[in-house]
Amino acid sequence: MVERVNTDILLFDLDGTLVKTTIAVEKAFGKLCDKYGLNLDELLKFAHGTRTTEVLAKKFPMIDNTNEVATIEFETSIGKDYVEFVSLVPGCFELLNSLQTMELNYLNKGSNRWAIVTSGTSQLTHSWFNNILKSINKPEVFITSSDVTKGKPDPQGYLMAKNLIIKRLNLKNDAKSIVFEDAPVGIQAGVASGSIVVGITTAFDKQLLIDAGATYVVSDLSKVKVIKDDINGIELEIDCL
């Protein structure tokens, strides 16, 4: 089923939505679980889409995470020790490149109708735009775990990103937004922010994403095309599962 959807703002999760990091993250958590005697499968049910700081606090209280030193160390290891297991979600480059190219026609350089809202640290998440996404300019609005006090499923990050874009582009306060997410907790955050949510089945199956509140579900970003991106807004074509 192909749907045409109009919006003003696009908000993207990063890990699992734009960049396939699931295997790398699981290997990093597997190492921690082996060290501290935890069950990896049980841990991952909670960890996916959740800020590392919250995972460490709940599941690894024995680890000293003062000033988030352990969080930074853990996420740095993902980008350093397991980078060979990281790749782009199919269609990611084409989708972001379309937005970047079209927006140059009517927005000031550096301005975007799209943003990143991730549970990852700034060190890790910005690094993806310095290597596997280096040909795409980082969006002006880039929300990481250090920018919020409440992680997903709380909508704080998505609301923050949406409001920043509204102010910077002088959009109406009731501007429409679409969230792209791969994790149920992220989908719940998107729904709570008042956005339409597109779920991506890179980590969870279709029904779980629908149950979490996704309006549309796609296999990957190759199923999402930008039909237009101009001063009047964005039109997408979504080939749904």
TrEMBL record:
One of its GO terms (molecular function) is 2-deoxyglucose-6-phosphatase activity. InterPro entries: HAD-like_sf, HAD-like_SPP, HAD-SF_hydro_IA, HAD_2, HAD_sf, PGP-like_dom2. It comes from the Eukaryota. Coiled coil: none annotated. Pfam families: HAD_2. PANTHER family: 2-DEOXYGLUCOSE-6-PHOSPHATE PHOSPHATASE 1-RELATED (PTHR43481:SF9), FRUCTOSE-1-PHOSPHATE PHOSPHATASE (PTHR43481). This is Uncharacterized protein.
